Amino acid sequence: MSFKVSFSEFYNHVKTSLADGTFAKLTMAKTIGNTDLMNIYVRPIIEDGVLKMELKYKFQQEEVVEIQTIDGARDTLVTYINNPFMSAILFTTKYDLTYKLNKKRAVSITEKSNTFGNASEVLLEYLNQ
Known about the structure:
By secondary structure, the protein is of the alpha+beta class. It has three helices and seven strands; from the N terminus they run αββββαβββα. The protein has helices at residues 3-19, 70-78, 121-127, and strands at residues 23-31, 37-47, 50-59, 63-68, 85-92, 95-101, 107-113. A seven-stranded antiparallel sheet has the order 4-3-2-1-5-6-7. β6 (95-101) and β7 form a beta hairpin. The longest helix has 17 residues, at 3-19.
């Protein structure tokens, strides 16, 4: 299974958690080697009354913020799987879901108990409109 297909399956959990109000945050982590881009942090925002995603690129010397549609964020994030990131972690109020590539580039998706007790305030505000 390609990274694009497996990551899209993982991202469906992101979309579900946005829809049911349990999304806390999404983090791209564990880079290959010493890269300038260290993490990408994803959180929901409301722009012109529409729920979108803010992608915060954490570089060694700076941060860059980009706003995308929910599906546009998936299309952007998938390009960073395997170059340079080896994992993505979805934090929800129900569970944490980890998408991980091993050294042989085999994909695993594992579920653990939730880290966060509260969903994103912006998301809850949007859902309660």
